[in-house]
Amino acid sequence: MSQTFHIPGQPITAYVQRIEIKKLREGSNLILGFSIGGGIDQDPGQNPFSEDKTDKGIYVTRVTPGGPAEDAGLIMGDKIMQVNGWDMTMVTHDQARKKLTKKSEDVVRLLVTRKSLEDAVRKSM
Amino acid sequence: MDNESQYSGYSYKSSHSRSSRKHRDRRDRHRSKSRDSSSRGDKSVTIQAPGEPLLDTESTRGDDRDDNWGETTTVVTGTSEHSVSNEDLTRASKELEDSSPLECRRFAGPVLSGVLGLFALLTPLAFLLLPQLLWRDGLEPCGTPCEGLYVSLAFKLLVLLISSWALFLRPPRATLPRFFVFRCLLMALVFLFVASYWLFYGVRVLEPRERDYRGIVGYAVSLVDALLFIQYLALVLLEVRQLQPAFCLKVVRTTDGASRFYNVGHLSIQRAAVWVLDQYYSDFPVYNPALLNLPKSILSKKMSGFKVYSLGEENSTNNSTGQSRAMIAAAARRRDNSHNEYYYEEAEMERRIRKRKARLVVAVEEAFTHIKRLQDDETAASSPKHPREVMDPREAAQAIFAPMARAMQKYLRTTRQQPYHSMESIISHLQFCITHNMTPKAFLERYLTPGPTMQYQRENSRGRQWTLVSEEPVTSALRQGLVFSLRRLDFALVVTVTPLPFLHLGEEFIDPKSHKFVMRLQSETSV
């Protein structure tokens, strides 16, 4: 996996999974049903899910059981690479949150990656 | 253990079993106390230069037997008291060479330079006085300017005198094997100066009977100026040049590996050797030959157990080397457990030392509680019911020595220090500590740790003999990679010279306002 020990500035190659989450309307809020952690303004050493402890990407830290994210197949520990075409590997925490919670969008299409993906792809080759 | 030959006249002791040791000890302690005065001569011989090489027989063998004070410190190692053994002879000869007579050579250099200096100091006065004495009438009168010059001359001579006294009039600390180059240079320079001034004076002033007295006074003043500058040169060459450190000397003692590092400046080898020896006497723990060897029991086991028989060989010369080689090879192949024994022996020794040290500390603490200082306002007759006799420090020391004597003796014997501390020296140290209100711990510090060699020196005007062994001429300057050694009879100090590294010092300025901190963030947002 080229994600581990990534050199900043170099292009990242990763095996990703496309996940489409339909937002659920709860009162006046549109919720997705998961929590994110990470960002370039955060402390990457505290991330329990990343392999490379200098990785400042956005990770899924919690998935609400029964929520839209779980239904779509999002798993805790996934790293979000793109949200609706917006890059998530070099954003601040707040920017990531904003991209996910745009009131004008009903659906978010995520590109996520996880370690088991790479292993699965390699095994199938 | 067959050590009878080591002890004089007490060979019967070896036949006694260890169980009767106590009786023997008690009996002998009385005897040794009365023998003290008679054997004092012998005792003092061994204590004299203990940090220095004692013959091995003197210090080590005493421990294997549980003997008394008198025995372990006397050195008469012959089969009887009346025969002079080989050790006696070597000891006597070593005595002689250790305390070499006051050599005239020691003072030759300083005396010579003293004479030269005195001559140089008196020369300006001579320059002034000679015209006055010889042709006073022909001199031009010289008023105020001359008197001004007289004053300046007087003060400069005074300064010269005082600084010569401060710098040069010191007893020499060492005799060097070769000439001290800088000192010779300076003496030659002074001689040259003064000689050339006298020459000029003789030819141009005395001969034609020069009449310009002011010029003569000015000439004398210029000589004094030149002497002051030479003294400045002497100060720089002899004292100041070696102050800035340039080399690191590693000094290792060959016998037990005690080592130190010192920083010195630019010196010649012989001067560096003198400097190292000065530091040796106060830094290095005293050389105790008894502490060196692995216990015999461990080493001897290795080679025993193999006997090599030659079968029908006529040629005996080949045999011996073949035999020893075979023995060594066989011993090497055998499973070697001596490290195990060494480890346990060390642990056992340590435990023994600690136990005896504990007993010693307790005994000394208790002994010190028996006396207290008499205050000025208390009088001896304060309580007529309990008259206390007033003692001076010596008597007080002797009074409290008795309870701690045995513990002290055992401790010293376990740590192999008993040659360095005679009973007399312990009592006088005790007296010293009592006089200065020291606690038992302060009294014991002398015995619990081996001190520097200086602590054990007797006042000796004769000096110590050291040999400087070097592959380079000893007047050459120190440089990298130089190795020289300083040898005494049984041990040597090996000195290695390395230059101190050149330092590239950089600068980094930190604005005091630039120290700012933030908390590390790890937030989690639910979306």
Query: Helix tally of chain A?
Result: 3
Which quaternary structure do these chains form?
A: heterodimer
Largest sheet of chain B: 5 strands, antiparallel
What is the average of the pLDDT values of chain B? Answer: 76
Structure description:
The complex is a heterodimer of chains A (about 120) and B (about 525). Chain A has about 120 residues and is α+β, with helices and mostly antiparallel strands. Chain A is about 20% helix and about 30% strand. Chain A has helices at about 70, 95-100, 115-125, and strands spanning about 15-20, 25, 30, 35-40, 60-65, 80-85, 85, 105-115. In chain A, strands 1, 4, 5, 6, 7 and 8 form a 6-stranded antiparallel beta sheet that branches. In chain A, strands 2-3 form a two-stranded antiparallel ribbon. The model of chain A has no long low-confidence stretch (mean pLDDT about 90). Chain B has about 525 residues and is α+β, with helices and mostly antiparallel strands. Chain B has 15 helices and 6 strands. Chain B has helices at about 20-45, 55-60, 70-75, 85-100, 105-135, 145-170, 180-205, 215-240, 270-285, 295-305, 315-335, 340-370, 395-415, 425-435, 440-450, and strands spanning about 245-255, 260-265, 465-470, 485, 490-500, 525. In chain B, a hairpin with a 4-residue loop joins strand 4 (about 485) and strand 5 (about 490-500). In chain B, helix 12 (about 340-370) packs antiparallel against helix 15. Chain B starts with 20 loop residues before the first helix and ends with a strand. The interface of A and B includes residues 32, 42, 62 and 100 of A.
Keywords:
heterodimer; A: alpha+beta; 3 helices; 8 strands; 30% strand; globular; B: 527 residues; alpha+beta; 5-stranded antiparallel beta sheet; 15 helices; 6 strands; disordered N terminus; cytoplasm (chain A); phosphoprotein (chain A); Tax1-binding protein 3 (chain A); membrane (chain A); wnt signaling pathway (chain A)
